[in-house]
Amino acid sequence: MMKLTNAMALDCLRVTGVRSTAACFVVPLATGMSLVLCFLALRQKRPQAKYIIWPRIDQKTCFKSILTAGYEPVIIENRLEGDELRTDLDEIQKKILELGAENILCVFSTTSCFAPRVPDKVEEIAEMCKKYEVPHVINNAYGVQSSKCMHLIQQAARVGRVDAFVQSTDKNFMVPVGGSIIAGFDAQFVDKISQTFPGRASASPSIDLFITFLSLGANGYKKLLKERKEMYSYLGTELAKVAEAHGEKFLNMAHNPISMAITLSKEGEDSGKAVTQLGSMLFKRCVSGARVVAPGSSKTIGSHTFPNYGAHSDIYPNAYLTAAAAIGITKQDVDLFCKRLDKVLGQWHGQGKSQSVQNHVAEGTS
């Protein structure tokens, strides 16, 4: 059954866009620990390496995977381009030359992420890694559900170097938490990663994925992907209407195929506290997927302190709320979310309800 599940996972990765994937396997670990396995497998090939170059993304799992593997992270701050945070390729190259390619375990890039960050420029990073003979590992946690993320990985492998890419089973296939798929373009290296796993573990992640693949089939999964893409556009339209009704800005996230954001404007010394209060108000109303980020908060992970944590940047100028169109989302989900957000924003701004938006949402849910 394990071999069958791995074979179906490989076919799925190819069907969803990474056609030249050579091998993959399902591992009973979440994304972070699966990334650790990749780093430990690379250690056998580069025993002298001490650093992992990492374009910043404010998700603890990514950073902690570097620390757990015993490497020193070299944090690359993102560039602000319009509303988006994008990869600073010049700084990556500078660090490769400064530290020496032989001392770098890999460049650790990301595809799927929360706005206002957008997927890394993985094609350009892959070309750079090929040029300097530095391995390249991609965190593709949410990416299988996005044709754009999968296309980026396929192109990166075509023009440059990609050693492994990792995706979560629960985030992409709606199964319980606790599994991931490690894949790559060199079957021997993927096998080397699998050999790094110590001992035995639960078969549940493979069984869950096996059942899901059989239940959905290729056509069923493609249908879910098509619906998700449609709901992404619909969510963007409706969220922009809510934002406009309350004097907020819908941020332009043209390069992020899953997540989007609107500003949260609040005057006063306690604006950061007010922003987090909005998050609490939404959570109380069973809106658990949205994230609110207020500038100014910091977080220490290991010995590293990240200013403005949550915003993926030291300098992002706005407080904001994110929303994502993930696989399985429906029109009813979007309408209910926008209805509750509109009501909460009205209370938060002290303006009452926006009747125009409420009427529009009511029509959609009736």
Distance between the termini: 45 Å
Q: Order of strands across the biggest sheet?
A: 1-9-8-7-6-2-3
Question: Main sheet?
Answer: 7 strands, mixed
Average the pLDDT over all residues and give the rounded result. Answer: 92
- Run of helices and strands: HEHEHEEEHEHEHEHEHHEHEEEEHH
User: What is the CA-atom radius of gyration, in angstroms?
Assistant: 21 Å
Helicity level, as a percent range? 40-55%
Task: Please tell me about this protein's structure.
The protein is α/β, with parallel strands linked by helices. The protein has twelve helices and 14 strands. The chain has a seven-stranded mixed sheet with strand order 1-9-8-7-6-2-3, sandwiched between helices. Helix 5 links the parallel strand 6 and strand 7. The longest helix has 42 residues. It is globular and about 60 Å long. The chain starts with a helix and ends with a helix. The C terminus is likely disordered.
Keywords, separated by commas or semicolons:
single chain, 366 residues, alpha/beta, three-stranded antiparallel beta sheet, globular, disordered C terminus
In short:
The chain is α/β, with parallel strands linked by helices. Helix content is about 50%, strand content about 15%. The protein has helices at about 1-15, 30-45, 60-70, 90-100, 120-130, 145-160, 170-175, 185-195, 205-245, 270-285, 330-350, 355-365; strands at about 25, 50-55, 70-75, 80, 85, 105-110, 135-140, 165-170, 180-185, 260-265, 290-295, 300, 305, 320-325.
